[in-house]
Amino acid sequence: MVLSRAASDTDVSVHSTFASRYVRSSLPRYRMPENSIPKEAAYQIINDELMLDGNPRLNLASFVTTWMEPECDKLIMASINKNYVDMDEYPVTTEFQNRCVNMIAHLFHAPLGESETAVGVGTVGSSEAIMLAGLAFKRRWQNKRKAEGKPFDKPNIITGANVQVCWEKFARYFEVELKEVKLREGYYVMDPEQAVEMVDENTICVAAILGSTLNGEFEDVKRINDLLEEKNKQTGWETPIHVDAASGGFIAPFLYPELEWDFRLPWVKSINVSGHKYGLVYPGIGWCVWRTKEDLPDELIFHINYLGSDQPTFTLNFSKGVQEHHGELPGERHGGEGGPGEDGALQHRVQGRGRAAGGLLAQGPQPARRVRDLR
Ligand SMILES: Cc1ncc(COP(=O)(O)O)c(C=O)c1O
Would you kindly state one Gene Ontology biological process term found in this protein's UniProt entry (predicted)? Predict the structure, then answer.
């Protein structure tokens, strides 16, 4: 929890069951202790308290049932002390991120020429990716409006009411009005007709979800694209689409390769995906990829040169661990081009997610329409 609460009389001290002369008097819970204690005692006390947490291997309730291959653990431990921000110090790590971005962009059919590199960034998760994608849409819309001499102070974004909380956060933090398409009995995702109906000249983008948080269902991105195509032709607004593929981005390309939801659709300009939603990647990794360089306004990219060379960055945080990049890469490599390998981690993830989605669907108000129904 981000916000802490005030200590009550009963919980001002840590009640450790660990017997040692170092803990003869209770350790304060919310204040720095007066005296130091040996590291072994500190370890024991903290470890004892952590035993009250749930066991991630038994966590079937959320998206983050986590286990990784022992080889990934080894790679992660080998790089746990690197700070990603020092790109000059850790050029191979930067290269790994770039490879992942390119693999994902190709997987999502970004229109890249043979020698062209993809535009994207590794993030802490889909939430950060969505903040960045949203900012890019807002800035592009503002630039267009300014160039046309029109007001640019009332941006809005269209989503379904089933949207994950990070979209509400984006809207509130970055002052964009969130216009939600209401759900209705028996239909628990964004209705494409209603969504495009709500688009106006101030709409920075329509955000479609591939894998709704409520029931795992895919929204009909192709239909939204086709309707927007018509509307954009009539209005000249050029309203784009972002696909929140946090949960579906590593499912759809493998289970439903014919389903058009990604950069095959011309109005899809950016896509986010979580690395950690599939059970076989530890939390802390997401991705945002843009269709082309033009879809990410240059002024949002900061060029720093603290260590000598130019380092372009587009992230919310400066410092960050690198271990998740190293952990995720074996999954991508193992899977190989164009699909998961025989026992690749991507394949595991797909299977793992299939199980997770099954669990989610079963909990929904009624069995969700499967993706086939949307084609
Ligand atoms: C559709 C959707 N978008 C975004 C997110 C946020 O993802 P993350 O936890 O990676 O920040 C979630 C998480 O549940 C989600 O289901």
Answer: L-glutamate catabolic process
162 lines ligand 1 (CB under 6 A): no
Domain with CATH 3.40.640.10 in the chain: 71-374
For the stretch 190-215, pLDDT in tens is 999 999 999 999 999 999 999 999 89
For the chain, give the longest Cα–Cα distance.
79
Determine if ligand 1 sits within 6 Å of the CB of residue 323.
no
Q: Whose CA is nearest to atom 14 of ligand 1?
A: 213
For 266-293, the pLDDT digits (tens) are 999 999 999 988 878 888 999 999 999 9
**Which residue among 65, 166, 214, 276 has the greatest number of ligand 1 atoms within 8 angstroms of its CB, and so is best to mutate?**
166
Position of tokens 């199980």? Answer: 355
Say yes or no: CB of residue 275 within 6 Å of ligand 1: no
**Can you give the pLDDT at residue 279?**
78
The Å distance, Cα 127 to ligand 1 centre, comes to 6
Please name every residue paired with 120 in a beta bridge, in sequence order, or none if there are none.
289
* 126 Cα–ligand 1 center, Å: 5
Rounded CA separation 239/265 (Å): 13
63 lines ligand 1 (CB under 6 A): yes
**Both tokens assigned to 309:** 């060379």
Domain 71-374 annotated CATH 3.40.640.10: yes
Looking from the CA of residue 127, the nearest atom of ligand 1 is 11
Please name the residues in contact with 73: beta carbons below 8 A apart, sequence gap of 6 or more. 327
Q: Which of 236, 135, 243, 153 is nearest to 202 (CA)?
A: 153
Provide the token pair at 128: 């950060």
Is 186 exposed, middle or buried (CB count within 10 Å of its CB: 0-12, 13-18, 19+)? exposed
Q: What is the pLDDT of residues 33-76, one digit of tens each?
A: 888 888 888 898 899 889 999 888 888 777 666 788 999 999 99
- Ligand 1 centroid–CA 213 distance in Å is 7
Q: Is 263 in the pocket of ligand 1 (CB under 6 A)?
A: no
Residue 217 has pLDDT above 90, yes or no: yes
What stretch(es) of the chain map to CATH 4.10.280.50? 12-53
From the candidate CATH numbers 2.30.30.240, 4.10.280.50, 1.10.132.30, 3.10.20.310, the one assigned to the domain spanning 12-53 = 4.10.280.50
